[in-house]
Amino acid sequence: MLIRPELMEEAERVALLSPCIRRKYGVVISTGPETTLAANYRVSKCCNGDICIRDRFRNSHAEGIEKGAEIHAEQAALILWRRPVFDFTAIYLAGFDKNGEKLLGQACRPCHLCAMMLRFAGFSEIIIRQTDNSLEPVSIAQIIEDHEENWGEPYTI
């Protein structure tokens, strides 16, 4: 898989457009030299501007997605994608803290539901920016396995 830094930069720009007060994620899906889709984390009626509904109910990262009116960046991308996934199809995920200042690096991972959706859509890896600034593909199957091993553990923001 060809990793293209300019697509990660685009995912980062898209992430910063997010109105979410908890975290900001952006996704770019590409096929070959052409960027096909970019989607940002969308929030609607999910918070009142000062507290996230998931924080109010003290939900962990792995629970409570159904309590807000939110669509994750990965979900929005898959809804609009509607194309087969080939070996050359790449998905880039960028994540920032709630202020949009700090890249999440290693902590930037899809939630369990998004990871499952990506896996069933045919993606095997997702590209993230590591803390050392390198771009690395991460196994979606491994992300799912990590989630399942840590169920019940508290998730810190």
Write a concise synopsis of the structure shown:
This protein has 157 residues and is α+β, with helices and mostly antiparallel strands. It is built from five helices and seven strands.
Question: What's the layout of helices and strands?
Answer:
Layout: H1 5-15, E1 24-31, E2 34-40, E3 42-43, H2 53-56, E4 70-71, H3 73-81, E5 89-96, H4 112-121, E6 125-129, E7 135-139, H5 140-149
Antiparallel strand pairs: 1-2, 1-5, 3-4, 6-7
Helix pairs in contact: 4-5
- What is the residue-averaged pLDDT? 78
How would you sum up the major sheet? 3 strands, antiparallel
Shape: globular
**What number of structural domains do the residues give?**
1
SS strand fraction: 15-25%
Query: Can you tell me the CATH class?
Result: Alpha Beta
Number of strands: 7
Residue share in helix: 25-40%
Task: Give short descriptive properties of this protein.
7 strands, Cytidine Deaminase, domain 2, 157 residues, two-stranded antiparallel ribbon, 28% helix, 3-stranded antiparallel β-sheet, alpha+beta, 5 helices
Structure description:
With 157 residues, the protein is α+β, with helices and mostly antiparallel strands. It contains five helices and seven strands; from the N terminus they run H-E-E-E-H-E-H-E-H-E-E-H. The chain has one domain (5-42, 70-149): Cytidine Deaminase, domain 2 (3-Layer(aba) Sandwich), CATH 3.40.140.10. 28% of the residues lie in helices and 24% in strands. A hairpin with a 2-residue loop joins strand 1 and strand 2 (34-40). Helix 4 runs antiparallel to helix 5 (140-149).
